[in-house]
Structures are given as C-alpha cells and as structure tokens.
Design a protein that fits this description.
Layout (H helix, E strand, L loop, with lengths): L2 H23 L4 H5 L9 H19 L10 H4 L15 H21 L2 H4 L2 E5 L5 E5 H25 L20
Amino acid sequence: MSLKEHFQLLAAYNQWMNAKVYEAAGRLSASELAKDRGAFFGSILGTLNHIVVADTLWFKRFVTHPSCLDSFQAVVDLENPKSLDQIVFDDLDGLKEHRIWLDRQIIEWTSLLSEEDLDFVLTYHNMKGIPASKRYSILVLHFFNHQTHHRGQVSTLLSQMGMDVGVTDLLALIPDEAQG
C-alpha cells in the first residue's frame, strides 16, 4: 500500500468515525453537549469544534501546495480560526453539516495527492506566527492523528454518558486479504 493509499484510508476512516460520533452526540440535548466535562476543550461541543478548527487550519495550509491551488478554493476561502478553542458553531446541526462538507473535501484532496506531492516540504506559520518547514507527508499524518486523538476524547465522554458509538477500530475498514 502506498503512502497515498494509507492517507486515503485514513480520510475514509475519519469520515466514517466522524459520522458515528456525530450520530451519538446528536442524541444529547444542547445543554448536555455544551456542559464542561473537564476535557481539554471542556465540552463535547467544544472538542468537536476544536477538531474542525484544527482541520481547517491544517487543510488551509495543505491546499497552498502547488498541486492543490486550483482545486480547493472553497477551503482557501474559509475564515481563519482565531484560536484553537474557538466555537465555530454553537449548535451541533451546523457543526455536523460543516463536518460532512469538510470530510468530503478531505476525501477529494487525498484522492488527488501524488506520491511526489507527499515529498514536498511545506513552509507555514503556526497560530503564534512561528515559521516551520516540514515534509508534507509527516504533516498529513499529524493531521489525521490529531483528529483521531481528539475524537477519542469525545468517544470517551460519550461513553461516560452511556452513549455507545460502536466499533471504532480502523481495522473495521480494512478488507480481508484472500488466504493463499
């Protein structure tokens, strides 16, 4: 499996898991979603917003790659988040709709990546204005890992409330290989 295929699998996994998490979260009231539960971003809604904020920041950086410039103008046009704990949507329905759109954009982006694109060194500035230059493939891996990390926090909070998101293993999306 190529690196590109790995990232396509991770994009599909994130889309699948986001749908499961949002479905479970959708069974909660607005006050339950917004209640501070002691997580790093406070509430379930706060954590889901953080994932969207971080995905937006990274995705906007990724689409500055020369091979992406013409394909993702809608992503480029997204407003830059002001902080990592910004509440972009204060309601789950709006956040979910945006998440679905964003996940579709991520799936499309990974389908267009080439192995050569992944060797590119991306230069960017973090939210504090500190410059960095890192290999594109490592940043893409971080992007997917970050989403998985915080979505796991949301899954734990939901579980503590008796909400089961079901199977969460990436393995569930990997087809069985034919036995020789």
